[in-house]
Design brief:
Length: 329
């Protein structure tokens, strides 16, 4: 397994991580806990050492699942989790909270659910406009000093927020959606992270599965799959985005790889400190994703991919209106 460094503070992880959210919530076809744990064990056994979860996934269930999966394997993984998106035990979404006292409470609860004594990478899940980022990162820095957290991250933060946060304590990683059809961070955040030595962890690098070529109509998604709420999966947007995917499929065939491998290899090609975290529920898809590390591009091929999927090419926003208000913040 190839390794990559995220940020300049010393965090080294597998070049591709595993996003664990879908093992517990949001996507249809979730596995049993036993199958999910077996998948995580397989990931670790083949060298995927970077596991991503959050307190809000489940809610709370995903951290417990990951904690059970890494029991006896803790020294082999780098564990990332997040705080700040608040949910009730009934699953209700209760807004955001990044007050210092909440940061400490959330961290202690995550440590207990995960069954570990420290978190390798701790993210603010979404920027909280009610709390100055300096106060939030100040509280996160205290957790580093206490040994509860090793490295700090932000998710979906904009350039100015990143600069302000990094001035309080070094930020190791920015986690944001980034893929061939989600290139928002190229509008400023990507340049700031490179300038400050902050690594990038793209979530949904496969376009929530759209870039794999699995979906030919909205009917391919079960009724309870939250992607049905995504503007990119709705109405005319679906057909327009499918036209892009068909071109990418043709490119992948000519390249001798799968569409998933093509999409992941493109993200990996952006910079040496970019580590995508695709999620999956199936062992064969996990193995397929890791195969992206064998795919490389010439300058001409990268230019051809830019022509197929230039920034802004995807039809529809990546979240409904409310969700778009709290990204790149």
């Amino acid at each position: 397994m190839q390794q990559r460094s995220i940020g300049r503070q010393g965090l080294t992880v597998s070049a591709i991580g595993l996003g664990c959210m879908g093992l517990s919530e949001f996507y249809a076809g979730r596995p049993s806990d036993a199958d999910a744990i077996a998948l995580i064990h397989h990931a670790v056994d083949i060298g995927v050492t970077f596991l991503d979860t959050a307190d809000t996934y489940g809610p709370f269930a995903n951290e417990r699942l990951v904690g059970r999966a890494i029991a006896g394997r803790r020294e082999r993984v780098q564990l990332a989790t997040k705080f700040g998106n608040v949910r009730g035990a009934d699953g209700a979404f209760l807004g955001r909270d990044s007050r210092p006292e909440y940061v400490r409470k959330a961290c202690d609860e995550s440590l207990a659910r995960l069954g570990v004594d420290h978190i390798d990478l701790y993210y603010q899940h979404r920027v909280d406009e009610k709390v100055p980022i300096e106060e939030t990162v100040g509280a996160m820095a205290e957790l580093v000093r206490e040994g509860k957290v090793k490295y700090l991250g932000l998710s979906e933060a904009g350039p100015n927020t990143i600069r302000r946060a990094h001035a309080v304590h070094p930020i190791t990683a920015l986690q944001s959606e980034y893929s061939l059809w989600s290139r928002d961070i190229e509008d400023g955040a990507l340049a700031v992270t490179e300038e400050l030595g902050i690594g990038v962890v793209p979530y949904s690098p496969l376009g929530r599965g759209f870039l794999t070529g699995r979906f030919r109509s909205i009917d391919d998604l079960p009724a309870d799959d939250y992607r049905r709420q995504s503007p990119r999966f709705q109405g005319d947007n679906f057909a327009k985005n499918l036209a892009i995917v068909r071109q990418l499929e043709a490119f992948a065939r000519a390249k001798g790889c799968t569409p998933s491998q093509l999409a992941l290899a493109w993200v990996l090609s952006r910079r040496a400190d970019v580590v995508p975290i695709p999620g999956t529920t199936k062992r064969e898809r996990l193995d397929e994703n890791i195969g992206a590390l064998r795919v490389s591009f010439t300058a001409d091929e990268l230019a051809a991919l830019d022509a197929i999927a230039p920034k802004g090419a995807a039809a529809g926003t990546r979240y409904p209106e409310a969700g778009m208000k709290i990204v790149n913040a």
